[in-house]
Specification:
With 596 residues, the chain is α+β, with helices and mostly antiparallel strands. The chain has helices spanning 9-29, 35-53, 57-73, 111-119, 137-142, 186-205, 208-228, 235-241, 256-263, 269-277, 309-319, 322-326, 330-343, 352-366, 377-389, 399-404, 408-417, 424-439, 450-465, 472-482, 492-504, 512-535, 554-574, 579-595; strands at residues 75-84, 89-96, 106-107, 123-125, 149-155, 166-175. The radius of gyration is 27 Å and the shape is elongated.
Length: 596
């Protein structure tokens, strides 16, 4: 087997020139530093880049850089942490002077490194024990005595400063020169800032192999879970295969105090009335700034936007009879909703608001639409959970983008299946659902049997996979085909798929003021994708082109007229009680067409 690839020579050239120039410029600006000294330090950094380039693989490259950093600032121990956004944690990547096992994954809410990763603040601390962010647990466990600390963030090397995220943290412990109580100097800080820039270039551009391994782990987890759905799987195999390990898809599980705080938030009578009326409920109002305290109608300091929706998830859960039917503890329900909120990204459309909106639409079909009388409780729960997680961790870029840009996840799926798999995102959403639901032990803390869990998972996965819009036309035909068959021959699995797809695009069936806002958000996400495609040199479709796309409601009107409304009208023939969805969509279309 071939060894890991060295860092690309072109990257070395960029790193050498960039870091060399920065080192010289930074040093020249320091008081009392000669031009010759600045030039010497610049050459030192350039030599460091070349030496790092000879290392085998990214980890060895970073270890070389960290060794040089440790020698440069003369410290006792040093470490490099990688930010794990999905888990809100820091993952130890390189640890010099200590064992990897000594430091587990660190929550971003803890310690000096966690503080720096959250805020981007550079901390140069003379005495760690006087710093309010210092976590003494490591010293108490290992017997090590931390004194001086120099810690700073590593940013992604994106061209646009507005898009630079904190991707890691460099931390140096205990200055060794200058006596017992030596502290890190401003020169040390400047040197480390230059090294952080070098680290960012390598980390941001050279981690494709690591990402591929992560994607392979996720795909294998899904494959194992799908295999466990076969009747031949034993109960122990089922539970083992549903335990997804080594994946970045699982956020940190909320602690008891966080859950208790959300459980104390009681929805008002007006909120519950609007929720149950379906049409009067506008989820986007819960994302205003600042958020409102649902119990007092006043500004609630420190409450994140959308937070008031968490208790409404459990309200829908109760209204549908899931608590009584399955015995799931209220705290587990709350954790499920909190994990979902953490998994949704801050993109214009496929965010937490969309996840709640689609789940609320399903809730409306079962209550206002009366379909709770058509589906059994297991099918209702599967549909509800699928709605919650159907777009979990959506990046705001569609399947075609992943395929055309040769994204590692699409390459991996093609390699493992033997042919191109086009539902790249839907497979990922399934995997996230499996990770979160099983990590929380949703079915373990309920009266649901293993056989029932198999049926529920089969429906969840099938229904989420059905949301790929590539299959939209086929589902229109399937809905029309059902009306030609006796009802006793109808497949309940197909009924769930039809309902999920209806909910997924149901924002166009909201009262016009709401639907129009959703249309704007969809268009902005399309434009954002188009901007990204243009930066990558990919062809940009007119619908995704800011300059060429139709303005106002014209593009929304086209989607509704040729895609959404024909589908709704076919579905209403199967479920006549959902006529309210089609009727409001017709009224909205008239307004959009008049304004186009």
């Amino acid at each position: 087997m071939a060894g890991p690839e060295r860092v690309h020579p072109a990257l070395l050239a960029v790193g050498a020139s960039l870091c060399g120039a920065l080192a010289g410029a930074c040093l020249a600006q320091r008081a009392g530093v000669s031009a010759r000294r600045a030039e010497q330090r610049a050459k030192l950094f350039q030599a460091m880049v070349v030496e790092a380039g000879r290392a085998e693989g990214l980890q060895a490259t970073m270890e070389c850089i960290l060794n040089k950093a440790c020698a440069l600032v003369m410290c006792q121990r040093s470490s490099l942490f990688i930010v794990d956004k999905e888990r809100s944690a820091l993952r130890p990547y390189i640890l010099l002077g200590m064992q990897t096992s000594e430091i587990p994954r660190i929550p971003q809410s803890q310690g000096i490194a966690g503080y720096v990763s959250r805020t981007g603040t550079v901390l140069n601390v003379a005495d760690a024990y006087t710093c309010p962010h210092f976590n003494r647990g490591y010293d108490e466990t290992t017997g090590f005595k931390t004194k001086a600390v120099l810690c700073l963030p590593i940013y992604s090397a994106a061209k646009d400063p507005a898009h630079r995220d904190i991707i890691g943290v460099l931390q140096m412990l205990n200055k060794e020169s200058g006596g017992r109580d030596a502290v890190f100097t401003t020169d040390d800080q400047c040197d480390l800032e230059e090294l952080a820039l070098l680290a960012s270039v390598f980390l941001w551009r050279s981690s494709a192999e690591e990402y591929k391994q992560w994607a392979e782990n996720e795909a294998n987890s899904l494959i194992r879970s799908m295999a466990a759905l076969k009747p031949s799987a034993s109960g122990s195999q089922l539970r083992e295969s549903f335990t997804v390990q080594g994946t970045t898809s699982m956020p940190e599980v909320p602690d008891a105090s966080s859950v208790a705080a959300y459980m104390a938030m009681k929805p008002s009578a007006e909120q519950l009335r609007a929720l149950r009326s379906i049409s009067d409920f506008d989820v986007l109002e819960y994302f205003s700034t600042p958020p409102l305290d649902p119990t007092k109608g006043t500004v609630a300091p420190g409450v994140p936007c959308g937070a008031q929706l968490i208790p409404l998830f459990t309200a829908m859960w109760d209204d549908l009879g899931f608590t009584e039917a399955f015995g799931v503890d209220k705290a587990v329900q709350m954790k499920l909703a909190l994990c979902l909120r953490k998994m949704m990204r801050s993109v214009p459309y496929h965010n937490f608001a969309h996840a709640f909106d689609v789940t609320h639409a399903v809730y409306g079909f079962l209550t206002k639409g009366g379909l709770a009388k058509v589906l059994d409780k297991e099918e209702q729960l599967a549909l509800f959970l699928a709605a919650m997680f159907h777009d979990s961790d959506h990046p705001g870029l569609n399947n075609q983008f992943h395929l055309r840009s040769k994204h590692p996840s699409s390459i991996l799926l093609e390699a493992t299946s033997g042919s191109q798999v086009e539902s790249v995102l839907e497979i990922h959403h399934c995997n996230v659902a499996i990770a979160v639901v099983t990590e929380l032990g949703l079915f373990d803390h309920s009266t649901i049997s293993l056989e029932a869990a198999q049926r529920i998972w089969q429906n969840i996965i099938t229904v989420i996979l059905a949301t790929d819009m590539k299959h939209h036309g086929a589902f229109v035909d399937k809905a029309k085909g059902l009306t030609m068959q006796p009802k006793h021959l109808w497949s309940n699995s197909l009924l769930l798929e039809l309902l999920m797809k209806t909910a997924d695009i149901s924002n166009v069936s909201k009262p016009f003021a709401q639907a129009n806002k959703w249309g704007t958000l969809v268009q902005e996400e399309f434009f954002t994708q188009g901007d990204t495609e243009r930066e990558l040199g990919l062809e940009v479709a007119p619908l995704f082109d800011r300059a060429a796309a139709a303005k106002g409601g014209a593009s929304t009107a086209g989607f509704v007229k040729f895609c959404a409304l024909p589908y709704f009208e076919a579905v209403v023939k199967v479920f006549p009680s959902l006529e309210y969805v089609a009727q409001q969509t017709r009224e909205n279309l008239a307004v959009w067409e008049a304004a186009a």
